[in-house]
């Protein structure tokens, strides 16, 4: 049975090329989705860290407390 499949593959390589290109498209799309997800998570973490920071005291408030 496998020799028949290999004989067909030798005669017509297009199905194998189509499957290989489909695998390549799927792999590249998965890499792209994972990169976008990583960027989105890092941006969300950065925004969350910015939102949690204590606000810096203004110059007037610092002068009222006696800091120069």
UniProtKB/TrEMBL annotation:
The keyword Transmembrane applies. It comes from the Bacteria. Keywords: Membrane, Transmembrane, Transmembrane helix. The chain crosses the membrane at residues 20-47. This is Uncharacterized protein. It comes from Bradyrhizobium rifense.
């Amino acid at each position: 049975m496998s020799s028949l499949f290999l004989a067909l593959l030798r005669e017509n390589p297009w199905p194998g090329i189509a499957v290989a290109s489909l695998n390549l498209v799927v792999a590249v799309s998965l890499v792209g989705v994972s990169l976008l997800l990583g960027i989105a998570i890092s941006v969300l973490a950065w925004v969350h860290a910015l939102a949690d920071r204590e606000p810096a005291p203004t110059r007037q408030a610092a002068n009222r407390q006696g800091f120069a």
